[in-house]
Amino acid sequence: MGLLSKKDSRLILDPLADNNPITIQVLGICSALAITAELEASIVMSISVLFVMGVGNVVISLMRNVIPSKIRIIAQLIVVATLVIIVDLVLKAFAYELSKTLSVFVGLIITNCIIMGRFEAFALANGTWRSFLDGIGNALGYAVILIIVGFFRELLGSGTLLGIPVLGDPIEKTGLYAIGYENNGFMLLSPMALIVVGIIIWVQRTKNKALVEDH
């Protein structure tokens, strides 16, 4: 028998596609719009949320039998705030420039609907192992969308990936710029992130008709 049962595997695999927290549950949209103009920021935010959700779900699961129901939301906020402070301090210590780019959005992980939703809906009712898998799965689902959006926004908006020119030099007119290509500055604006997410949602529902809501 493998490490993960079929039921446990679904906790990781479902949020990657058919139950994605951004495209299906429509949660965590704010950061998807705000910080995805650069792929590096998208990756770092994804790793941050992965840490907070994975560890946070385990902590809440361990505490679930001792947290009074009347203060469970406060307890959850304390746990996530502590983890976010750790993430913020690590970023400032090892990636200060990037921490300034992410600035307030790291702090807003505290109020990320995905995290609080999984604490409330899953970690409070399940054991530590399944809670850990649920946190990792939903964080990966969130990360996939952020990285896809960040990839296309930086590529089409700046002609770079992770700050490295990949389409040529727009000043020297090399690569694609030599045949008249120009960067699309609109891709760097937040509304374009919403459009890219919308395209992902459209593609996802086109491939899986079961996701299309009946009216």
TrEMBL record:
Family the UniProt entry places it in: Belongs to the NqrDE/RnfAE family.
Catalytic activity from the UniProt record: a ubiquinone + n Na(+)(in) + NADH + H(+) = a ubiquinol + n Na(+)(out) + NAD(+)
The protein's job, in short, is: NQR complex catalyzes the reduction of ubiquinone-1 to ubiquinol by two successive reactions, coupled with the transport of Na(+) ions from the cytoplasm to the periplasm. NqrA to NqrE are probably involved in the second step, the conversion of ubisemiquinone to ubiquinol.
Gene name per UniProt: nqrD
The highest taxon in the source lineage is: Bacteria
The residue range of the signal peptide is none
Transmembrane portions of the chain: 43-62, 74-95, 101-119, 131-152, 185-203
Entry's EC annotation: 7.2.1.1
Protein name as annotated: Na(+)-translocating NADH-quinone reductase subunit D
Q: How does it assemble?
A: Composed of six subunits; NqrA, NqrB, NqrC, NqrD, NqrE and NqrF.
**Localization annotation:** Cell membrane; Endomembrane system
Q: Its membrane topology, per UniProt?
A: Multi-pass membrane protein
Q: Which UniProt keywords apply?
A: Cell inner membrane, Cell membrane, Ion transport, Membrane, NAD, Sodium, Sodium transport, Translocase, Transmembrane, Transmembrane helix, Transport, Ubiquinone
Q: By its UniProt entry, which HAMAP family does this protein fall under?
A: NqrD
